[in-house]
Design brief:
The chain has nine helices and five strands, in the order αββααααββααααβ. Helices cover 46% and strands 5% of the residues. By secondary structure, the chain is mostly helical. The protein has one domain. 27% of the residues are buried. The longest helix has 26 residues.
Length: 297
C-alpha cells in the first residue's frame, strides 16, 4: 500500500525541495505590512504630541487617516463635526484617527487575503507551500482567532468609508469658501490633491467591493446559480432566468471580477491610503506645494 504521508512530515522548519525563491513573497509582505503599521502608528499619534501643528487637513484636502473628522484638538477643530475633544477625554487618546481607523483596519485585519498574507509572513503558519513549518499541528481559526468571523460586519463599515472618502473628494473640488459658508460656495478647482484623494477612494472601493463576503452576500447565499442541486433550479434545464436571480447574478459577477484581483486591490489601496495621508501632511506643513490643475472662477 502506498505511503500517503507528506514528504515534509516531521521535517524541520524551512526544509523544502523547492528551488525557487519561495521566501521572497512572505518577506515582501512582512516588510510592507510592518512599514505600514509603523507609519500608521506614527501618524495616528502625531496630533497627540503635536496638537498645535497642521497635518490633518490642507485647504479643502483631508487626510483619509482622520476621515470622517469627528473631533480634533488642533487647528482643524473648526472643521470637525463635533468640534474639540471633550474635557474628560484622555489626552493620550486625543487623536481623531483613533476614533475612525479601527473600522478600516478591522476590515483589512479580518480580510481573507490579508489573513493568508500575515499568517505566513509573521506567524509562519504555513511558511509556504511545501516548506517545513515550525509546528506540526493545525487548530484552524479557533480560540482568539474566532474573532475573524466578524469580517462581514467590518465589511458593512468598509462600505460606509467608501462614502466618506468619496465625499472628501467632492469637497476637495471646492476651495476658498467664505467663512461660515458651505464648502460648495468656494471656487471649483481641481488640485493634485483632489486627484490623490479621488484615486484613494477608487482603490478602496475596488478592494472593498471585491470582498469575498460581499461576493457571497450579493449572490443571495447561493453557492451555485446554475447547479442542479440548487432548489431554485429543479426541473430546469438551464440557469434560472427570473429577474430576482438574474439581478443577483449580475451583481455577483461584478463582485467576482473585482475579487479575482483582490490581492492587487488590497496592496494598491493600502499603499494609496498611506500616500494620500502623507501627501496631505506634506502640503499642510508647506513641504510640498498645493498644485492647481484647473480653476473655474
Amino acid at each position: 500500500m502506498a505511503n500517503s504521508e507528506s514528504p515534509l512530515s516531521g521535517s524541520s522548519f524551512g526544509d523544502t525541495n523547492r528551488k525557487d525563491n519561495w521566501w521572497a513573497s512572505p518577506l515582501a509582505v512582512f516588510v510592507g505590512l510592518s512599514l505600514f503599521v509603523l507609519y500608521g502608528l506614527f501618524r495616528t499619534f502625531y496630533p497627540v504630541f503635536n496638537p498645535g501643528a497642521p497635518g490633518i487637513t490642507a485647504g479643502s484636502l483631508q487626510s483619509p487617516f482622520f476621515s470622517p473628522l469627528l473631533f480634533a484638538a488642533g487647528p482643524e477643530s473648526g472643521q470637525a463635526l463635533f468640534g474639540t475633544f471633550p474635557s474628560w477625554w484622555p489626552t493620550v487618546l486625543s487623536s481623531p484617527a483613533i476614533l475612525v481607523l479601527w473600522a478600516p483596519l478591522g476590515l483589512r485585519a479580518t480580510c481573507y487575503y490579508y489573513r493568508k498574507a500575515y499568517y505566513r509572513a509573521f506567524f509562519q503558519d504555513p511558511t509556504a507551500c511545501a516548506v517545513g513549518e515550525p509546528r506540526n499541528d493545525y487548530n484552524g481559526e479557533t480560540g482568539l482567532l474566532i474573532v475573524q468571523n466578524v469580517h462581514r460586519y467590518f465589511l458593512y463599515l468598509g462600505l460606509l468609508f467608501i462614502v466618506f472618502l468619496s465625499w472628501d473628494t467632492v469637497k476637495a473640488l471646492f476651495w476658498n469658501a467664505p467663512a461660515g459658508a458651505p464648502f460648495w460656495a468656494g471656487t471649483f478647482e481641481i488640485h493634485v490633491g483632489t486627484l490623490v484623494l479621488g484615486l484613494n477612494a477608487v482603490l478602496l472601493a475596488g478592494y472593498t467591493l471585491g470582498c469575498h463576503s460581499l461576493r457571497y452576500l450579493v449572490g443571495g447565499g447561493m453557492r451555485c446559480f446554475s447547479c442542479p442541486n440548487n432548489p431554485r433550479n429543479q426541473n430546469r434545464e438551464r440557469a434560472p432566468s427570473d429577474k430576482s436571480i438574474s439581478g443577483r447574478y449580475r451583481l455577483w459577477r461584478g463582485v467576482t471580477r473585482l475579487n479575482v484581483n483582490h490581492q492587487t486591490w488590497a496592496w494598491c489601496s493600502l499603499f494609496m491610503v498611506a500616500f494620500a495621508d502623507f501627501y496631505v501632511w506634506m502640503v499642510s506643513i508647506g513641504v510640498w506645494p498645493g498644485v492647481t490643475i484647473l480653476s473655474l472662477h
